[in-house]
TrEMBL record:
Neddylation of cullins play an essential role in the regulation of SCF-type complexes activity. Transmembrane segments: none annotated. Residues 28-218 form the DCUN1 domain. One of its GO terms (molecular function) is ubiquitin-like protein binding. It comes from Rhizopus azygosporus (Rhizopus microsporus var. azygosporus). The lineage of its organism: Eukaryota, Fungi, Fungi incertae sedis, Mucoromycota, Mucoromycotina. PROSITE patterns: DCUN1. This is Defective in cullin neddylation protein. GO terms for cellular component: plasma membrane; ubiquitin ligase complex. One of its GO terms (biological process) is protein neddylation.
């Protein structure tokens, strides 16, 4: 039996094997999604779910705001702004996951989390989504405090070196913002460089911030 690589299987098929819906089934599905969304929409703007609505939604499905799951949901919905879900984003995400109620969503999210854990390409898609999603709309770069909070959720348990990198940022405060290149490079750095820095090549084209981190970490270890 030949198993297709995960990255070659359409994402929707990875989370559901349901056959296409009939027109009647689709209308029922859309109606259920709409009624579900209406529980959390803003009272002043029915086309958006604000922070209070999002918090209530996550609470109802038993999801911690400090876990990776809200980021996965935002990714599946292709949300454009942290803390907000538009009606169109909600409908897009529920269709992509093929769910219209809490119990089905929990199953789909569990499957998605397992896929992200096993497949680097899936995780990379989520990780790269988080940069434009979480930074302020009027900023080109991301505040370092926001980046650290996201890395603690996304990377610390996956790549041990990231914990030391965060410590470096917090102690030395070398930057106030993280640019897109630095954000993407940390994922590659975490994959390639072990905690003992044995795979680090100073000739490689890492951002200067990473060179400064390596110098700091080596000094920390030599002082012990």
């Amino acid at each position: 039996t030949i198993t297709e690589p995960a990255q070659l299987i359409p994402r929707k098929q990875r989370y559901t094997n349901k056959a296409p819906k009939t027109n009647k089934e689709q209308k029922i599905f859309d109606r259920h999604c709409q009624l579900w969304y209406d529980k959390y929409k803003d009272s002043d703007n029915s086309d958006i779910m604000g922070p209070d609505g999002c918090q209530a939604f996550f609470s109802d499905i038993g999801v911690s705001l400090e876990s990776i799951t809200p980021l996965i949901i935002a990714w599946k919905m292709n949300c454009s702004r942290m803390g907000y879900i538009t009606k169109n984003e909600w409908q897009h995400g529920m269709k992509a996951l093929n769910v219209e109620n809490e119990s089905k969503l929990k199953v789909a999210l569990s499957t998605a989390e397992q896929c992200i854990e096993k497949h680097d390409k899936e995780f990379e898609g989520l990780y790269n989504f988080c940069y434009p999603y979480a930074k302020s709309e009027n900023q080109k770069s991301m505040d370092v405090e926001v980046a650290i909070a996201l890395w603690q959720v996304l990377l610390v348990n996956r790549y041990p070196i990231v914990k030391s990198f965060i410590q470096f940022l917090q102690e030395k405060k070398p930057v106030k913002v993280i640019n897109k290149d630095q954000w993407r490079s940390l994922l590659e750095f975490g994959r390639d460089i072990p905690e003992d820095l044995s795979g680090y090549d100073p000739v490689s084209y890492w951002p200067v911030l990473f060179d400064d981190f390596v110098e700091w970490k080596k000094k920390q270890e030599s002082d012990v």
